[in-house]
Fold this protein.
Amino acid sequence: MVNGQLPKDAWELVLNSLPTGAEWMPLAGVGIIAGVGLVVLLKGARLAPGLTSLVFALVAGTAAGKLAPMFSLPVWPVAIIAGAIGVALALSLFRVWFAILVGLCFAGTSLGFYASQTLVDPINKYLAQGLDPKTGKVSLPNTATAINPEAAVQEHLANLWTTLQKDHPSLNVNLSVIAAATCIGGFVFALLLPKAARSIVAASVGTAIFMPAAFGLLQAFWKPGADAIAPHLAIITAAVWGLSLLANMLDVREKRAKKSAETDSEETATA
């Protein structure tokens, strides 16, 4: 998403791999994804408890449905009961679950920033070891013909990790400290300022969903426009994130104001 080339290549790869006459299928899917992303962009903070309940219900119901035959229990009743329990847990412990999610997001973001600032050069150096001077391409393990593809990938990653540790002897400590500190910080932040935390997560998730889908639709229906904005995608993405954050904060604040007004009206009527 930095220069627009990655989403353009991905979209063209999807279109080229489709059979003739099925070009509408990815467009329909991308349109649905864009619609969901837009809803999250505008109302994600307010809808967070409901969306969390839905996710808990689906996960609990699916897991229970898979396990029910092992205990000779009917699938659908068990799945429905487990889904209801998932909803109850999600609603009763929403602030805790959400704080854990925010903490993990903070940790992931901080680790990504640290890696982008300190590990890019060592990774490029490692990849350059397999660089073909004639083609200018990096040779990676051929997992398609390897006897054990998983072992080949694991060995490759292990070698990369060893190289990174040589360049940064304190890498393990740095990663652990950064992850722990930012995770705890995000957890506390979400508990103390839940509305702000929900707005930040809604803006981030909504932007991550909406922007690739919107760019894909633009690429499909107005390619010159997509090519024109591709170099500015980073700025546009940041602007969308900021506007979404503002919209979500205003939305939850308005909801809170309405609740306060309704409570005052009920107290006045009771008096």
Observations:
- The mean pLDDT is 81.
- The two ends are 58 Å apart (CA to CA).
